[in-house]
Amino acid sequence: MRKGKPVEPVVVSEYGETISGYPNQEGNTEHTEDTVLSTLVHDDCATRGITSSSWADTYQISKSHDAIVCRGCRRSWVFPNTVKTYGDLRRYFAKYNHSTNQSSVPLSGGVGPFV
């Protein structure tokens, strides 16, 4: 039995980029906020219509940090390896999870969880 609410895309940058769980064969995700991170989708690449290029994988990049890397555009987002679930990922990137009005999003000036 699934726990928690279904996962909405997680905003992971000041530009409003989002990451989602990879959908099953029916096109639905069965992920919840409590689901351990697995293969992800970089939604911004997915909207370009090249499904295989929108997959994103999680890699360990140091003793303390992991990164999500998009297979298509090679964009990456670094986060502490204590982040294990979709809910953890949402909480870590919470400063970007607000209105879709991008004009109100402060730019990081190169500081933050970006590579």
- Could you give the order of the helices and strands? EEEHEEEH
The proportion of residues in beta strands is: 15-25%
* Low-pLDDT sequence parts: 1-5, 99-115
Q: What Rg is obtained from the alpha carbons, in whole angstroms?
A: 14 Å
Specify the biggest β-sheet.
Answer: 6 strands, antiparallel
For the largest beta sheet, what order do the strands appear in spatially?
Answer: 1-2-3-4-5-6
Total domain units: 1
What is the subunit organization of this protein? single chain
In total, the number of strands is 6
Taking the alpha carbons of the first and last residues, their distance comes to 37 Å
Written account of the structure:
- The chain has 115 residues and is mainly beta.
- It has one domain.
- It is built from 2 helices and 6 strands.
- A 6-stranded antiparallel sheet has the order 1-2-3-4-5-6.
- It is globular, with a radius of gyration of 14 Å.
Please tag this protein with its features:
single chain; 115 residues; mainly beta; disordered N terminus; disordered C terminus
Summarize the structure.
The protein has one domain (10-96). The protein has 2 helices and 6 strands; from the N terminus they run E-E-E-H-E-E-E-H. The chain has helices at residues 43-46, 86-92, and strands spanning 10-11, 18-21, 40-42, 55-60, 65-70, 76-80.
Walk me through the topology:
Blueprint (H helix, E strand, L loop, with lengths): L9 E2 L6 E4 L18 E3 H4 L8 E6 L4 E6 L5 E5 L5 H7 L23
Antiparallel strand pairs: 1-2, 2-3, 3-4, 4-5, 5-6
